[in-house]
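Quick board copy: two proteins, each given as sequence then tokens.
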Amino acid sequence: MTKKSFSPTPPRGRRRLWAVAVTALALVVPFTAASPASAVTTDNGSLVYSPAAGTSFNPEGGQPAGSTYAKMIVLKNSGTSNGTQLVTFDQLVLENGVQVYPIYRSTNNGASWTRVAAVKPSTQFPTLTRTAQPSLYETPIQLGSLPAGTLLLSGMIMPTDRSSSRLVTYKSLDKGVTWSYLSTVDTGGPATYDPSPTSTTSTVWEPSIAVDANGGLVTYFSDERQKANNVLQAISYRRSTDGGLTWGSLVNVSAPTNNSDRPGMITVTRMPDGRYVATFEVVNRPSQTNNTAPVYFKISPDGLNWSPTTSIGTQIKLANGRGIGSSPEVRWVPTVGNANGMLVVTSKWGLDASGNIDGGQNFFVNRNLGSGSWEQLPYAVTYDSADNQGGTFSGFAQGFDSSADGKTLYQSTNVENLSTTYNDVRVGSVPINADQYEAEAATRTDTSLVSQPDAKGGSKVGNINNPTSLVRFTVQAATAGTYTMNVRYDNGTGAISSHNVSVNGGANSALSYPATPNWGRFGWAQRTVTLNAGSNTIAFTKGTGFAELDQIQIYKP
């Protein structure tokens, strides 16, 4: 988002990344904390960080958010440390008068987290005491004097009065425990958000890192300094050939000359055919007064040439016209049995076919190197995606990565917490290659289909309310044995509900569903099931309370 987000005037304008509007946080029912000692799918993920009530500062006079901009990586080029997860975020809590970039680490698949470092901008720049918009990167090859597996942290730092903006890079050679300043990528004017055509701002924002096809280190970012060319904001890059010590000339990825569109929040990933994909939001689309920040993408042969640079590329949409908006991130993820793998994109909210903000609880996935159709894959962690103008702007600029073995997708994001009225940081996981079975395609008795845009396929099954209600899935197993079943449900009752579950006509056992914040906000329940080789049935019937079903996932643990 370019920046930070919301414009104070239009009803769906963006708002600054560090600030939040003064409207109250919508009342929701919080999920309970997670406790399993493995990858966490249930309970809306595991808790990484929860700011104490009364500690978050108000950088622009709005309601404090506590945390935003959660970003993560899973180490894959670090030998015996592969699989370690690291998370950072924009922490709106001062430590001795200074903001820091906190670094949290998990070595048990995201089940528990420990803070291992705090990167302070003031070490090199004593007057720059505020941090924003971090991103993490692990170098896949040696770059200059940086060995493969070096961790890089990039972000924007500024003084308390936000009178300047500086994009900086830090490095860690010990898997995130200690960090040192590497270089300044670029500098700009005051960190002030003004998306209007008459804007005179000259900020540089939102850095992210990649290695190009020629082995150069590239920092992509948002640039407001090209207004003389009728470019309200560009997404650009600078390239380093010496491991990030010095940076080359400014080159644009997308710089529309209509004095209106504001592409921003760019991230870039490399596909297995050697091409690169960039995703970004476009603020002021479809208009400045109806700004939903739809997500677009462009493809480059090498991560450097993005011509024509006046183009904003192609909007990401499903076949039914639904899209996504605000603060995207893209990664290419390998998958078993498909050399193309999949392009995965996160965003803060969904868009309906008319471009209106509507939900937002799914990754968008493309399995053909950016060509053809996109599909939905359910998020591991959900948040108040309707919080697009008030509250703490939960879910803003989330991150994700795949496991070292390519079997799991991890998601980090900021989730509203009613106890503190701030955002917590949470990480959850979903299996990449699970078999998915939609509830609306199951055999159903005495139930009803309920339209729900965030449900896989657009519908869920509700009114499983009576002794005669039944949802029976037919699932396939390659071999006999024990499988894990994830159940995507919603339960807006405010209390724990349950269904009775029977496998292949066997005895019923209760599956509990903790309350979700409302009907339509999905959560995950999980249990193991013993299946025969070939075809099996899994039946859900009325238990206690009420819950609705979207899908089940079946996979080997």
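And the next:
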Amino acid sequence: MSFHLANLAALPVVAPVAMALALLLFPRPCAARRTAVAVFFAGLLGHALWLVFHTVESGPLVLRIGGWLAPYGIVLVADTLAAIMLGLAAFTALACSLYGFAEAPARDEHPLRLPLLCLLLAGINLSFVTGDLFNLFVAFEVMLLSSYALLTLEAGARESRQAWSYLTINLLGSALFLAATGYAYSLLGTLNYAEMIVRADALEGDFRLTLLGVVLLLVFGLKAGVFPLYYWLPGSYPMLPAPLAAFYAGMLTKVGVYVLLRMTGTVFPPSLTALHTLLAWVAGATMIFGVLGAVAQARVQTILSYHIVSQIGFMVLAIGLFGPFAFTAAIFYIVHHIIVKAALFLVGGAVARAHGTDELSRGGGLWRLAPWLGIVFVVQAMSLAGLPPLSGFWGKFMIVQEGFSQGQWVLVTLSLVASILTLLSMLKIWLGAFWAEAPATAPRLDGGFRRMTAVGLGMVAVSLMIGLAPQPFLRVAEHAARTTLDRPGYVAAVRAANLEQVPGKHPRAVAPETTTGGAQP
């Protein structure tokens, strides 16, 4: 039986599930188990990088699961945007797991941490490659169930109580998502993205389509942590162990941002400008309220958690500005932010290890005692604030440039104010954790601390490469933006997969030749 290249679209989903099962069969933490996980994540990263190059050169991979034809069966679509997100997820999982290995010896590791991390990664990856709204719901549930377990796996009674807000808001979001999925099916008669595109075009100008868009944006905005739906995030992430907090900070909210890109750029008609305007103004509020929350905090991880909210605002603003250049800026900013934010959370974990707490009033002295950790923080903090020539500058510059070109003076001003306040809150961490006099109790700077710092330095190297040589990354982001907005091209790719016959099999359904808008009564 011949191998079809499209099967590789399923690898980022199937492989983490298989790895999780294998880890459960060998539950005893040991060095060999950790090595296998690190090699596995590195392999996923290599596969994602190959996917990026393949989709840029040859177009998306479209897999019809089980040979069923779209829209009657499950379809996986790995285009350039999905491939970029798969690469970021694998890279973040690799860096955070290596940090966790440096943080504590294998004998102290909870045996379920790595299997649950793999299942979480499977749900995240399925969110990126699914071509079907209901299977996006399934992906979210796999992701959320794993995240619930990890959130309380190593927490005490007090921290577990703090997880209630995370659990409650996401359960409500899941219920709303399921209801929105049912409404989408009743309106369009399909949940396959490609067919939704065609039928949504036929309903262009219908108020019901706008209502569907608003409900779905509410669902995915909750997942992304936009204003006013972000209150669950700053209290939840700091209770996690540092490597898990860094992975959550880097990836979980970006799943919501990715789906906002996919829905507004690919599935819904570009004429729904009211949705874009709504997103842009919600983004402005998200930037300001998030950064004000950060300024008011006195713990490293809590400050950084509020910054997740604020920085999500920049990405959503780019989506709301809409268009190829704005989407290029959003994708480039996502790449920058995932790496920088995960690295900063790892720095917060190192600060907490050195002083036994990440409270700024009880820290200090790390610039003199651990200058390499200080370098990691300074570079990533300045990048988060958007100072040139670091990676954060280019994304913010493009967003501001697009805002000016569209005459959005208020939103641009809000983004600039948020950037200044970001710099001030980063200075607050610098003065409290690094520059202040060391406390009476000597910081714990052992071999584990140095290995943790080395992981942060590796992430800084990647971030600097993006900032100092942005052209290749911008070209890939531009291609991803262009293909994300190429709605006819997406439909053609999915329908072309229906014409490819699997040797030795007969199609289980017939592909629709024409599609009419709306479900038939």
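Board note added afterward: The chain is about 75% helix and 0% strand.
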